[in-house]
Amino acid sequence: MTHRPDDALTPVFDRAGEATRRPRDRFPRTPELPETAYQIVHDEMMLDGNARMNLATFVGTWMDEHADRLYADAYDKNMIDKDEYPRTAEIERTCWRMLADLWHAPSVDGAAGTSTIGSSEACMLGGLALKRRWQHARRAAGTSTEKPNLVMSSAVQVCWEKFCNYWDVEARYVPVTDEHPVFDGHDLADYVDENTIGVVAILGVTYTGAYEPVASISRALDAIEQTTGLDIAIHVDGASGAMVAPFLRPELEWDFRLERVHSISTSGHKYGGVYPGVGWIVWRE
Ligand SMILES: Cc1ncc(COP(=O)(O)O)c(C=O)c1O
Hints:
The chain folds into two domains: 9-48, no CATH class; 69-283, Type I PLP-dependent aspartate aminotransferase-like (Major domain) (Aspartate Aminotransferase, domain 2, 3-Layer(aba) Sandwich). 32% of the residues lie in helices and 15% in strands. The protein has helices spanning 34-46, 65-74, 86-102, 119-140, 158-166, 214-228, 245-248; strands at residues 9-11, 21-23, 112-116, 149-153, 170-174, 196-202, 234-237, 261-267, 279-283. Helix 4 (119-140) crosses helix 5 (158-166). The termini are far apart. Bound molecules: pyridoxal-5'-phosphate (PLP). This is Glutamate decarboxylase. Belongs to the group II decarboxylase family.
């Protein structure tokens, strides 16, 4: 078989009953054997190489066979349809409640959470909740909701740029410098104002793995509240660190132990040890 993906007409197999050429990017006019369809897609995927040797994608590429079996058990379930699959929904609920507990939610029963397709979607939901909370408070006070902004390090992962773009929120980046290699709450008063929907703290900066000191950011916001009355919430983007810090740095206070931390997101498919795509978000209440 020769297989040149860029051909408008891609040569395929010559087994009996099969067309020998198959148009690419056009809906097939004739049926084809399942083995042939499999082989075509399988061969094309081979060009991506071996996922376990790819250290760049930052997701789990190995699970033990029991976890593999559980994934296979769930292939045919439309998990999003929670009325039809209430036990699967209950298992999902169990998982985020375990995370609420791991991250020291004051009351697991009072927390809220969900699975997502990855940290990106979890961050979208976290950001959206911050925006809604701010909008409700502003409307209740009879003030404008036209110019929301979100404050975060210039080293945030691109999903935060997307969040600001999708939901019309001004992104305010605190630059990473030699003096402040991670966002630590310095000069925060220059960035936040009455239109700030929240501050993002990253537990595990994508490029370095560094933890932003959530407690210092929280203290800086406490000081701002004292002088301005602004009560600004923190979302912790714990894409990698929220699955690591509880085990390796249990004494580090970065989670719901800090009252200002309203929500935490993580990627199950990073250090949660599973294949893509699974993320999680938990809200304090
Ligand atoms: C800090 C941080 N936030 C968000 C994401 C997005 O995660 P995902 O790929 O699970 O959507 C990443 C991924 O590298 C990340 O490192």
